Amino acid sequence: MLSKNKSNQFKYLIIIILLIGTLLRIYNLSSESIWIDEITSIESSSLSFIDIVNPAYSLSSEYANPPFYALFLKYWIKLFGNNEIALRIPSAIFGATSVLLVYFLASLLFNRKVALLSALILSINPFHIYLSQQARMYSLFVLFSLLSLFYFFKLLKENKKIDWFSYFFFSLLNLYTHYFAIFVLF
Questions:
Q1: Is residue 154 within 8 Å of residue 163, measured between CB atoms?
Q2: What is the distance, to the nearest Å, from the Cα of residue 119 to the centroid of all Cα atoms in its chain?
Q3: CB 101 within 8 A of CB 147
Q4: Residues 66, 176: contact at Cβ < 8 Å?
Q5: Phi/psi of residue 111, each to 5°?
Q6: Contact present, 74 and 52 (Cβ < 8 Å)
Q7: Distance between CA 100 and CA 19 in Å, rounded?
Q8: How far apart are CA 137 and CA 58, in angstroms?
Q9: Are 165 and 151 in contact (CB under 8 A)?
């Protein structure tokens, strides 16, 4: 059992790591113009609901991605518009949340020290920061993958019904976000 002082130190450290990760993801968020892949995301989100969720259409078109992110972006744009910051802020939020999820997953599997180090590494990882600044589905894919893995390992430890449901739910969302989610399941 950790002392109260040591526990508070871990809380402050994870807050600092989260702040660093969040700031790195929102820094210069609109410095680059929208590029071709982001335009593809915007165009796919402008399709009708039926066209987005229709597998035959999405597989035969240039928008060959699962529909969840396009649906999310469709309604996000209706609420917040389609300028660079409005389009990219969800990815930054998903990326920053992934830092916290890495902490929880590593805490579950190892200990708090390893969890802090893992969260720190992800928070300053340039590749993850880059993907968290794109109006694409990649940071959401990472977030759902971490949630799926977290509930999978929690399920192995505790075997609660809510963990079964959460694992199934986040795995399904992940499969509807990116095709590589199948590898997370395996």
A1: yes
A2: 14
A3: yes
A4: yes
A5: -150, 180
A6: yes
A7: 11
A8: 15
A9: no
pLDDT, one tens digit per residue, over 89-115 is: 999 999 999 999 999 999 999 999 999
Question: How far is 143 from 130, CA to CA, in rounded Å?
Answer: 15
Q: Express each pLDDT in 118-134 by its tens digit.
A: 999 999 999 999 999 99
Give CA–CA dist 112/49, Å, rounded.
43
Give φ, ψ of 163 to 5 degrees.
-70, -40
Token couple for 12: 């402050």
Token couple for 77: 């744009």
- Report the distance separating Cα 132 and Cα 103, nearest Å: 18
**This prediction's pTM:** 0.91
Distance CA 39, CA 148 (A): 29
